[in-house]
């Protein structure tokens, strides 16, 4: 089977001939490129060439089915030293966010640290509601089809359609430090903003997602026990998902959540909401969740893409502990149903790349179905 055929089988609830091994390696590749110290074997390789040589597959995360455009809004970005300010100017006011990009982050090709969040209170909500109401999603299906053809047999494109509104507010708009204070202080105003976000998405984005040629959609990122705990998950996230996901399922699509956070306290809720897959699924020692616990909660109903925590690829992590962790993962997945082996979240800039090759060799010798 090719990687695409294996992915297709898993998405259809069938068994592949071998467990797919598809880590994301772009952070390591970009950092090593910027530092000029890619190993000689790969110094002139593109990312796809490196993926093919190292594990023979690609995560195929670069596709898109729409382009987002703003109507009557000026987005102004200014750079002063290591500080970047992004301002959204509208007829009803302006909001801005500020991030600082240190030299170290630049060297590793990583994003900056947010130092000023976009929304500070109700006066900013009205401005952002204007931005939301004047946001349009323009379908770009031809672009996706060209990308899909380029990926070919090496992968199965997973296309991001955005976060759920509640977590977008918590992470991207108000920020993790202040969001829950704002929810407590301005509950009606926050609810109004979230309803506006959902209704605009429902009217303009959902139809594009439903009619798109993409079959695997990424909807929701970083949902966690800490920042989307059960009481908020049940109130804000499940209703949104239960309205959207059945529509997607009826079109033959599968829905993934980017799960590189602790999901131990929301595990059952993720299934109740209707997700089909958790990608970049992170496990111990980085979070309390394990493959064993995941199987206890979901059985093979939830597809798991991950299982290799990025921390065990660090040179400082004992090699014997690394191999023990990988072998334990293989024991925990049973026959290997509903599993795509990957790194959660990414092979990091300081990872020992020889450990990725070690896993490739281990999959080649121990990953054939049934694994156990």
Summarize the helices and strands and which ones pair or pack:
Layout: H1 3-11, H2 26-35, H3 47-54, E1 66-70, E2 74-80, E3 83-90, E4 93-100, H4 103-108, E5 113-116, H5 122-133, E6 135-139, H6 141-151, E7 159-162, H7 165-173, H8 179-185, H9 187-211, E8 216-221, H10 230-250, E9 254-258, H11 267-273, E10 277-281, H12 291-298, E11 303-309, H13 319-332, E12 339-344, H14 353-366
Parallel strand pairs: 7-8, 8-9, 9-10, 10-11, 11-12
Antiparallel strand pairs: 1-6, 2-3, 3-4, 4-5
Helix pairs in contact: 5-9, 8-9, 9-10, 10-11
Descriptive overview:
This protein is of the alpha/beta class and 372 residues long. The chain has two domains: 3-69 and 121-366, TIM Barrel, CATH 3.20.20.210; 72-120, no CATH class. The chain contains 14 helices and twelve strands. It has helices spanning 3-11, 26-35, 47-54, 103-108, 122-133, 141-151, 165-173, 179-185, 187-211, 230-250, 267-273, 291-298, 319-332, 353-366, and strands at 66-70, 74-80, 83-90, 93-100, 113-116, 135-139, 159-162, 216-221, 254-258, 277-281, 303-309, 339-344. The strands form three sheets. Strands 7-8-9-10-11-12 form a six-stranded parallel sheet, sandwiched between helices. It has a four-stranded antiparallel sheet with strand order 2-3-4-5. Helix 8 (179-185) crosses helix 9 (187-211). The longest helix has 25 residues, at 187-211. The protein is globular. The two termini are 20 Å apart. The model has no long low-confidence stretch (mean pLDDT 97).
